[in-house]
Amino acid sequence: MKTLKDMGEHNAIAALTANLKAVGDDCAVLPLDDQYDLILTSDPLIENVHFFSETPPERIGHKAVCRVLSDFAAMGAEPQYLVVNVVASPAQDFQTLERIYAEFSSLWEIYGAEVVGGDLAQGPVLELHVFGVGRVPKGKALLRSGAKSGDHIYVTGPLGCSQQTGKQFRFEPRLEWAKELRESGTVTAMMDVSDGLATDLRHILKASGVGAELDSSEIPRVGTLEEALYDGEDFELLFTSPAEFDFPKVGTITGNTEELLLDGNPLKAKAFEHFRK
Ligand SMILES: Nc1ncnc2c1ncn2[C@@H]1O[C@H](COP(=O)(O)OP(=O)(O)O)[C@@H](O)[C@H]1O
Ligand SMILES: Cc1ncc(C[n+]2csc(CCOP(=O)(O)OP(=O)(O)O)c2C)c(N)n1
Ligand SMILES: [Mg+2]
């Protein structure tokens, strides 16, 4: 019997979605009307996987919603509505849920994404499943697939140690920057960094059919280089463009298909993967 542990998250997703055409980016992009494309995404936030039992409720609420908002940013899109499924045990402290929902209201005031429904059901641990609906001007979503040889590679902020610093619970979804980047008309590929720069850049390389060279001295980091490359949950934007931007420029796209080099040497693949922990 083959299990998810044998396959790992990424192989399993690839196999399950092999025949699904719309799948593969941070959000799905679908035709809506003459002006806009529809943007859809969802993310589960699970106790002991994405947060701890002692994580303050406001931080849980922040991460649950802002992970989804970060996926909208990754497309250069505007989030509009959220639907939230809460799974919890009968012993769940109710005030924790009230504080999570108070955080949702605060985030609505800041980012304009309103919770318009959801569900509540019983399960073994606390889970928040957030579904997001939004839009982007027609044909303008920034995909992972447009990077070209010679493009610069940028990140919008420091990487690594998001667990130690608590950034994984406090990060700002980069919606404003994402809009400016989209409106510049020069960004060729974009995504957000959830699994670490080394893993997520590979997604852009694969989708775009290109390679990349990273320059370790240019990677903005909180701790070690290793942590910046592999920790994940930074929720910064990673994007490629031939234009100059006032963001850290960490490398260059090359024509060497799917080859990823760091200071001239092949970069090892290693990252958080569900079912392999
Ligand atoms: N269970 C699933 N069913 C259908 N599509 C999925 C499933 N899990 C992931 N995907 C799709 O596969 C792609 C890669 O997923 P993932 O690596 O989780 O991306 P992300 O890091 O942006 O969440 C995304 O386009 C996502 O929508
Ligand atoms: C409490 C806690 N445990 C473990 C981790 C490590 N971790 C959990 S999920 C994850 C990667 C991102 O989560 P995933 O569900 O794969 O999000 P996606 O990439 O699909 O958006 C990491 C680095 C963490 N940040 N916090
Ligand atoms: Mg995922």
From TrEMBL:
Enzyme class: transferase
Catalytic activity: thiamine phosphate + ATP = thiamine diphosphate + ADP
Pathway note: Cofactor biosynthesis; thiamine diphosphate biosynthesis; thiamine diphosphate from thiamine phosphate: step 1/1
Source organism superkingdom: Bacteria
Entry's Gene Ontology molecular function annotations: ATP binding; magnesium ion binding; thiamine-phosphate kinase activity
Binding site for Mg(2+) 3: D26, D71, D192
Residues that hold ATP according to the record: Y101, G118, D119, R144, S194
Ligand binding (Mg(2+) 4): D26, T41, D71
Domain PurM-like N-terminal: 24-136
Protein residues bound to substrate: H50, E233, F272
Protein family according to the UniProt entry: Belongs to the thiamine-monophosphate kinase family.
The name this protein goes by in its record: Thiamine-monophosphate kinase
Organism: Tichowtungia aerotolerans
